[in-house]
Amino acid sequence: MTSAVPAPSQAKTDPIATALRIEAVELIEVSARLRFRFETSFGAQQDLTRLLVVLHADGLEGLGEVVAMGSPGYSHETTATAWEVLEAHALPRIVGRSFATPSQLLGAMAHIRGHDMAVAAIETAFWDLLAKRAGMPLWQLLGGVRSEVAVGASIGIQSDVAATVASAQRHLAEGYKRLKFKIKPGWDVEPLRAVRSALPDAVLTVDANSAYRLADARVFDALDELGLDYIEQPLAANDLHDHVALQRRLRTPLCLDESIHSSEDARKALATDAGRVINVKVGRVRGHLEARRIHDVALAFGAPVWCGGMLELGVGRAHNLHMSTLEGYTLPGDTASASRYWEEDVIDTWLDAVDGTQRVPDGPGIGVALVREVLERRAVRRTEVRP
Ligand code: OSB
Ligand code: MG
């Protein structure tokens, strides 16, 4: 009698282990105008261009978004540098080749030093492909533990204190679970004191985007009195040393954003107490694989993480929501309602929060699709690369 159990060679192959051949890649740069002027310590943004990546494989489309903006204020990367790096240095190694895993794909781009935002757009689009082929939402493939995520709002530098308090009250009334205020030298203690006295119980944070030096520590001593959940990236991105000194004199945890590019950076920062919270941005750290490793390191240290934003359109926003489902993302992220930022999105749904909570799309992959007609109207530059 023959056994009904299939021999090992007939066993179903793990879908994740079968290589996907990248048949074509589209790069589409679209214009997008924010509904508000967003001012940070590194400048003001309103008219943006965003760069989208579409990987074609096996009849599926994998979607990614470059989180860089038009000017190199947050980091050295811009939409234009990402275009150049992708077109000249990444796509020639990707198109027409097959990859079974994100790390294999990253291996094909290992000759690209830095330019993590450009590389991340490809890496995240590949995760979307893998999850679509497996017929599961990306959050499950990533190992997420929840299907809804708590979100806060990031509030830019306003014209005056009264406008700051009014914006804080409006966002709190909309249900956002934490309010983060952009600060810069000369715009820090005064607006935050006003917000704290208007909203004594709200979860408040500040983000300096590296605008201060250790010599400004008195500003942080004053902020330390306001019961903030954390102070985000006060000092230079490459200055963990002085973050250690600043953290030592404050009760408020420091949160690192620009300083963290890898799980090794996270380990060194947490081991030296340069900060106690990490803002993980999938785009800043070369994609989901490294974002997950940073999350794992932080979890091992008992340090909370949250998912930062970069004014993304729906594609990047969807990736952020999926990443935010991992166990260690215990603080509200930056992925506020898409309709808070844009008149029109490039995807077929509005990723909007209800009472400070975003539902993670539950279709295959990132669970959202591009609206081609919107891309046609908004494209300022596009190319399609085939083998
Ligand atoms: O530092 O977190 C930041 C936006 C652009 C660049 C950097 C940052 C931000 C934000 C806004 O804080 C996040 C968002 O609302 O998408
Ligand atoms: Mg930040």
Word description of this protein:
With 387 residues, the protein is of the alpha/beta class. It folds into two domains: 18-135 and 371-385, Enolase-like, N-terminal domain (Enolase-like, domain 1), CATH 3.30.390; 140-359, Enolase-like C-terminal domain (TIM Barrel, Alpha-Beta Barrel). The chain is built from 13 helices and 15 strands. The protein has helices at 79-94, 102-107, 116-134, 138-142, 161-173, 189-198, 217-223, 240-249, 263-272, 288-301, 314-323, 338-341, 372-378, and strands spanning 20-21, 24-40, 43-57, 60-66, 98-99, 148-150, 153-155, 179-182, 204-207, 231-232, 254-256, 277-280, 305-307, 357-359, 379-385. The protein has a seven-stranded parallel β-sheet with strand order 7-8-9-10-11-12-13. The protein is globular and about 60 Å long. The N and C termini lie far apart (51 Å). The model is unreliable at 1-16 (pLDDT under 50).
Overview in brief:
With 387 residues, this protein is α/β, with parallel strands linked by helices.
Share of β-strand residues: 15-25%
* Assembly category: single chain
Shape: globular
Total number of helical segments?
13
Largest sheet: 7 strands, parallel
- Tell me the radius of gyration: 21 Å
Derived from helix and strand composition plus strand pairing, the structural class reads: alpha/beta
Instruction: Give the second-level CATH assignment, the architecture of the largest domain.
Output: Alpha-Beta Barrel
Count the domains.
2
User: What hetero molecules are bound to the protein chains?
Assistant: 2-succinylbenzoate, magnesium ion
Distance between the termini: 51 Å
CATH topology of the largest domain: TIM Barrel
